[in-house]
């Protein structure tokens, strides 16, 4: 069987530019990812007594460093293990949020309402990188 090769950078550029027409959309996507991380932590706390959440301290921060020409989006949500990072960011169009919804659907019913769906929002940052 013949294997096909891909130029990952070109494929990523094609995918991103076909989905996003506005370069500034990356910021909305990163904030949406942060929001999902906070929602996932809160939802997990409803079914796992070992997870304690103080809702007043949940936060998304956006910091701009003009000199370094960087924008940092951070949150104190659920986070990811090294394996989750590899799976979620190392596989284009893999949605960790969809996986989370499926895993928690029985416990939460229709209450699982998080933004992420297609697993490509993070990659929009490459439009401006």
Automatic annotation (TrEMBL):
Keyword hit for Endoplasmic reticulum: no
Pfam family membership, one: HATPase_c_3
SUPFAM superfamilies assigned to the protein according to its UniProt record, in alphabetical order: ATPase domain of HSP90 chaperone/DNA topoisomerase II/histidine kinase
Listed GO MF terms: ATP binding; ATP hydrolysis activity; ATP-dependent protein folding chaperone; unfolded protein binding
UniProt keyword terms in alphabetical order: ATP-binding, Chaperone, Nucleotide-binding
InterPro entries from the UniProt entry: HATPase_C_sf (IPR036890), Heat_shock_protein_90_CS (IPR019805), Hsp90_fam (IPR001404), Hsp90_N (IPR020575)
Keyword 4Fe-4S: no
Family named by the database record: Belongs to the heat shock protein 90 family.
Protein name: ATP-binding protein
Protein species of origin: Candidatus Olsenella excrementavium
């Amino acid at each position: 069987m013949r294997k096909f090769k891909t130029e990952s950078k070109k494929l990523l550029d094609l995918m991103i530019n076909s989905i996003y027409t506005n370069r500034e959309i990356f910021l909305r996507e990163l904030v949406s990812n942060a929001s999902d991380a906070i929602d996932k932590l809160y939802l997990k706390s409803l079914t796992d007594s070992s997870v304690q959440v103080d809702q007043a301290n949940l936060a998304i921060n956006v910091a701009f460093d003009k000199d370094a020409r960087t924008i940092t989006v951070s949150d104190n949500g659920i986070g990811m293990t090294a394996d989750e990072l590899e799976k979620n960011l190392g596989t284009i169009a893999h949605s960790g949020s969809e996986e989370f919804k499926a895993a928690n659907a029985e416990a939460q019913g229709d209450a699982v309402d998080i933004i992420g769906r297609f697993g490509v929002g993070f990659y929009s940052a490459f439009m401006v990188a």
